[in-house]
Write a structure and sequence with these properties.
Blueprint lengths: L1 E6 L7 H8 L5 E4 L8 E5 L2 E5 L12 E4 L4 E2 L1 H13 L4 H4 E4 L3 E2 L2 H14 L11 H9 L14 H19 L7 H16 L2 E3 L1 H10 L4 E4 L23 H8 L6 E9 L2 E3 L12 H9 L12 E3 L1 E2 H11 L3 E5 L9 E10 L2 E3 L11 E9 L16 H14 L3 E5 L7 E3 L1
Parallel strand pairs: 1-10, 1-11, 2-5, 2-10, 5-7, 6-8, 7-9, 11-15, 14-16, 15-19
Antiparallel strand pairs: 3-4, 12-13, 16-17, 16-18, 19-20
Helix pairs in contact: 2-7, 4-5, 4-6
The structure holds guanosine-5'-diphosphate, 6-O-phosphoryl inosine monophosphate and magnesium ion (MG).
The site of guanosine-5'-diphosphate has 23 residues, from helix 1 and strand 3.
Length: 422
């Protein structure tokens, strides 16, 4: 039995926190796509942890954590993550397994990312510059290096050929990028050695057997549906399928084995990087969301753009993913707003529409809002759903009615314990 947990917006919905909360119900947590562009934050016992590649179930004793074939791994960042876990005495050697088919991010992939962004000027994607795009390009172009290659003696030959090709490509971009490849490669090799201390597996086979044994598996997504390479706000997206189908290809899970699809969204919307964002606020309300929600990227530290909840986009994400239950995060951040606005339609080239059109740039789309009463109550100490203020209950009921999916969790703070089940 496999459940999926996915972000429904532009990422940073709070996936890390909820995976950590739910891990006790599962035997296996498996990441299925993305790479160190992700930053998944979890908090417990007063300590905040940020994971980039490693699944968010790693802090629990019993769960096995798998980095699936759909993930791209940068050994340098991976080693840093392992070193951090080591500080907390987490026994990652026995419970962290890596798919042989996961692709490797080379130092030159990162440089290519930087060169590509620099060459785009104002039209840049706002990439996290972790080499994600170039690595997936090599994967689909059938040139990539995979974790399994590291088990063969000739991996450095393969590495050299690919890195040399990348260097020529960097020159092609004709932009100023300063780097010392020898240093980057030395760091890469240290990372590879750290990675090789872990167990490499044929993860699809492992997951197949686990299912046959009746194990419960939670597939952890990265990014969000609106950053999906096919269904997101292209080209301002990431380079993987962040939606439910990505779990099938990123882990080898058959579609008919997926049971629950848990969709996570913030009570408002954020986006980091470039690209259209119809409900973005440039006023005091947006600044308040950013300040109270501490909206800074967990990977890059960049301020996140903030705005009201976009139900048109959320409904689209619910449909694409077949979401069976919803989790609303950061409800606490909206406490104190007199009025809460929800975008329920777009004015698209003069016509009122309720689906996501091909282009949602602000020159075409103006959000149409429904206004609701806000609440003043501080939610951060609440533990039970019957303590939620009536105006928040109205907000939740309105969203459930619009989306036709129940909201099962309301999150009221970053800590594991600040989680209300309904
Ligand atoms: P992810 O990428 O989806 O795992 O989300 P991030 O970790 O990038 O961003 C979510 C941020 O919100 C983190 O700093 C979390 O600690 C924090 N967070 C999660 N849930 C809540 C919540 O309910 N309330 C508040 N105030 N913060 C939250
Ligand atoms: P988590 O898993 C938010 C954004 C970047 C940029 C675009 C492409 O923490 O939710 P990339 O580095 O993939 O080439 O960047 O996607 N982006 C994210 N935004 N959360 C993430 O991950 C993101 N991963 C990538 O800001 O706009
Ligand atoms: Mg994040």
């Amino acid at each position: 039995m496999v459940d999926l947990l996915l972000g429904l917006q532009w990422g940073d919905e709070g996936k890390g926190k909820i995976v950590d909360v739910l891990t006790k119900e599962y035997d296996i947590i498996a990441r299925f796509q993305g790479g160190p562009n992700a930053g998944h934050t979890l908090e417990f016992d007063g300590i905040k942890h940020v994971l980039h590649t490693i699944p968010s179930g790693i802090f629990h004793k019993n769960a096995i954590n798998i980095v699936g074939n759909g993930v791209v791994i940068d050994p340098v960042i991976f080693k840093k993550e392992l070193d951090n876990l080591g500080k907390f005495n987490i026994d990652f050697v026995s419970k962290l397994l890596i798919s042989r088919k996961a692709h490797l991010i080379l130092p030159t992939h990162r440089l290519l990312d930087a060169a590509s962004e620099a060459s785009k000027g104002k039209a840049k994607i706002g990439s996290t510059l972790k080499g994600i795009g170039p690595t997936y390009m090599d994967k689909t172009g059938r040139n990539g290096m995979r974790v399994g290659d590291l088990e063969f003696d000739d991996w450095k030959t393969k590495y050299r050929a690919l890195a040399d090709k990348h260097e020529a490509m960097i020159d092609f971009y004709d932009v100023e990028i300063e780097y010392n490849l020898a240093e980057l490669e030395a760091e890469f090799c240290v990372g590879v050695e750290a990675l090789k201390k872990l167990t490499f597996i044929d993860s699809e086979e492992y997951i197949f057997k686990a299912q046959a044994e009746g194990k419960k598996i939670l597939a952890e997504g990265a990014q969000g549906s609106l950053l999906d390479i096919d269904f997101g706000t292209y080209p301002y997206v990431t380079s993987s399928n962040t939606t439910a189908a990505g779990a099938c290809t990123g882990l080898g899970v058959a579609p008919n084995k997926i049971e629950r699809v848990l969709g996570i969204f913030k009570a408002y919307t954020t986006r980091v990087g470039s690209g259209p964002f119809p409900t973005e606020l440039f006023d005091e309300d947006g600044a308040t969301m950013g300040r109270v929600g501490n909206e800074f990227g967990a990977t890059t530290g960049r301020p996140r753009r903030c705005g009201w909840l976009d139900l048109v986009a959320l409904k689209y994400a619910v449909q694409i993913n077949g979401v069976t239950e919803l989790m609303m995060m950061k409800a606490d951040v909206l406490s104190g707003f007199k009025t809460i606005k929800v975008c329920t339609a777009y004015d698209y080239k003069g016509e009122k529409i309720q689906h996501l059109p091909y282009n949602i740039e602000s020159e075409y789309v103006t959000p149409v809002y429904t206004e609701m009463k806000g609440w003043a109550k501080d939610l951060t100490k609440l533990t039970k759903s019957d303590e939620l203020p009536p105006a928040l209950n109205d907000y939740i009921s309105f969203l459930e009615e619009q989306l036709q999916v129940p909201i099962k969790i309301v999150s009221v703070g970053p800590d594991r314990l600040q989680t209300i089940h309904r």
